[in-house]
Design brief:
about 140 residues, mainly beta, Jelly Rolls, 5-stranded antiparallel β-sheet
Length: about 140
């Protein structure tokens, strides 16, 4: 069994801050844990808009606190996000994520992130030996 706390993870290299300062994320569970998914507590800073397109990953995002919206670019539909909302990127949906207030989100990725992705601003979520993801703004 693996046991970790958010408090301890936030004080370690598991906490990463986006180069564009739109968000930060603490990766509680990563590829090297061999669970088949990764788990993150992500904070989206108030007033930000982030363009995200996880071409190599499926992701589910559950809102713990704060409010915002997610716009899917394929159809222009805007979905509001509030505590209790989950959005599920089952089609690798390209989207814009906006925070009206600071949002705390619980995020699950399949396949798992390795933890290194944040250091490459435009290839934020590459899958080993595949095309880079895009995450900008
Ligand atoms: C909201 C969202 O897409 N979060 C993704 C995870 C986070 N940005 C991270 O850990 O890199």
């Amino acid at each position: 069994m693996i046991v970790r706390t958010l408090e301890a993870a936030e004080a370690s290299e598991r906490r990463v801050v986006a180069p564009n300062k739109n968000w930060e994320s603490t990766r509680l569970l990563l590829q090297d844990d061999n669970m088949g998914f990764s788990f993150h507590i992500t904070t989206i800073y108030a007033g930000t808009e982030t363009h995200i397109w996880y071409q190599n990953h499926l992701e589910s995002v559950y809102c713990i606190s704060g409010e915002g919206e997610v716009e899917t670019l394929a159809d222009g539909v805007i979905h509001s996000i509030k505590p209790g909302t989950i959005y599920i990127l089952d089609k690798h949906d390209e989207h814009l994520l906006r925070a009206n207030s600071e949002m705390k989100l619980a995020c699950v990725f399949n396949p798992p992130l390795s933890g290194r992705e944040v250091h490459d601003e435009n290839g934020v979520y590459p899958l080993a030996e595949s095309e880079p993801e895009t995450c900008s703004a």
